[in-house]
């Protein structure tokens, strides 16, 4: 699964880890996150994330 990086603060969403502080378990692909999901660090919208290698 591809990781996604916040273009505002640099936080990386890693599907292998999920976002435990937001109650998101490991294994959830970025595309499957809710449309209203926001960056747990800076609150940026999902659209502010870009895929990283």
UniProtKB/TrEMBL annotation:
Protein name per its UniProtKB record: Rubredoxin
Gene3D superfamilies reported for this sequence: 2.20.28.10
MF (Gene Ontology): electron transfer activity; iron ion binding
Cross-referenced InterPro entries: Rubredoxin (IPR024922), Rubredoxin-like_dom (IPR024934), Rubredoxin_dom (IPR024935), Rubredoxin_ET (IPR050526), Rubredoxin_Fe_BS (IPR018527)
Domain of life of the organism encoding this protein: Archaea
Function, in words: Rubredoxin is a small nonheme, iron protein lacking acid-labile sulfide. Its single Fe, chelated to 4 Cys, functions as an electron acceptor and may also stabilize the conformation of the molecule.
CDD domains referenced in this protein's UniProt entry, alphabetically: rubredoxin
GO BP terms: alkane catabolic process
Rubredoxin-like domain: residues covered: 1-52
Organism: Methanofollis tationis
Cofactor: Fe(3+)
Family label: Belongs to the rubredoxin family.
Keyword annotations from UniProtKB, A to Z: Electron transport, Iron, Metal-binding, Transport
Record text on cofactor binding: Binds 1 Fe(3+) ion per subunit.
Residues that bind Fe cation: 6, 9, 39, 42
SUPFAM superfamilies linked to this entry: Rubredoxin-like (SSF57802)
């Amino acid at each position: 699964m591809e990781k996604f990086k916040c273009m505002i603060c640099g936080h990386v969403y890693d599907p292998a880890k999920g976002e435990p502080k937001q109650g998101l378990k490991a294994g959830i692909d970025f595309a499957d996150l809710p449309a209203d999901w926001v960056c747990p660090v800076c609150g940026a919208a999902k659209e502010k994330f870009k895929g990283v290698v």
